[in-house]
Structure to design on (287 residues):
């Protein structure tokens, strides 16, 4: 009864629920992206982001959530969001959930690299060593130079870069706008761009389509909401490591739904990336 008495424990609980929701989202996306265009998937996701923005604004009594102090930065941030979402969705079309998430889990490491370049944040030599080790984990999974290497494995790596870039820009944006404002612009700009793109790449919908797309929107919004709540209860450094639970869920959903099991190099690479990523996050908070 007293397990989640502290705010920190509640934050961890909501972080676990957030990444579980994202894992279910990705399981739906892997099926939906086969029969629908990526732009249709993103359109429904940004529609639910807009709904979440209204909900969060009402909850926080932020009646001027639509006013931004840096529109250009918000637009750029949304473009990065679209790029990373599109790349991850595309990765699920060609790769197993475990492979895509194992490579994509390099994101926290990329955040540190970009933070040092863009935000001029100090990074110790120990952290740089951990970052290098993390990239070795990616190379073990991708196996470049071997016949087993698949160029499509570069897609989640690109997605991880855009997601890392997006998170750094989000950190800058937070100095100007509230989370509700960022959610609003993410939703409205995403809807405008995806509506235009979907017009040219529209695929016919059926009953299954409506179920898949609705589930994608719901679990995406739930995941985002739980993530927001988690960050209000605990520091980002405490929440971030739970990002790696996505690999665990990806293996489970991949096996249960798609009969996919990661091979030994993927498991080894994922473990290396996870350990190096958690170390980098912990080092960053102590520097």
């Amino acid at each position: 009864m007293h397990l989640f008495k502290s705010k920190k424990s509640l934050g961890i609980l909501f972080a676990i629920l957030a990444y579980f929701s994202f894992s279910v989202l990705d399981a739906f996306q892997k099926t939906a992206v086969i029969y629908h265009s990526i732009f249709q998937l993103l359109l429904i996701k940004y529609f639910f982001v807009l709904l979440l923005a209204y909900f969060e604004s009402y909850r926080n009594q932020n009646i001027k959530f639509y006013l931004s102090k840096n529109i250009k930065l918000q637009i750029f941030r949304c473009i990065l969001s679209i790029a990373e979402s599109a790349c991850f969705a595309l990765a699920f079309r060609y790769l197993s959930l475990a492979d895509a998430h194992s490579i994509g889990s390099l994101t926290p490491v990329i955040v540190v690299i970009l933070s040092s370049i863009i935000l001029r944040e100090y990074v110790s030599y120990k952290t740089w060593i951990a970052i290098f080790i993390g990239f070795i984990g990616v190379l073990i999974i991708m196996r470049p130079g071997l016949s087993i290497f698949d160029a499509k494995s570069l897609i989640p790596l690109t997605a991880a870069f855009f997601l890392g870039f997006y998170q750094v820009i989000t950190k800058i944006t937070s100095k100007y706008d509230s989370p509700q404002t960022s959610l609003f612009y993410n939703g409205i700009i995403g809807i405008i761009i995806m509506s235009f793109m979907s017009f040219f790449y529209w695929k016919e919908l059926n009953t299954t389509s409506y179920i898949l797309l609705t589930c994608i929107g719901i679990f995406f919004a739930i995941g985002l909401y739980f993530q927001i709540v988690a960050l209000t209860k605990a520091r980002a450094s405490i929440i971030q490591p739970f990002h790696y639970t996505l690999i665990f869920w990806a293996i489970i959903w991949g096996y249960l739904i798609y009969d996919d099991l990661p091979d030994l190099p993927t498991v080894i690479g994922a473990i290396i990336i996870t350990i190096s990523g958690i170390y980098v996050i912990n080092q960053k908070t102590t520097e």
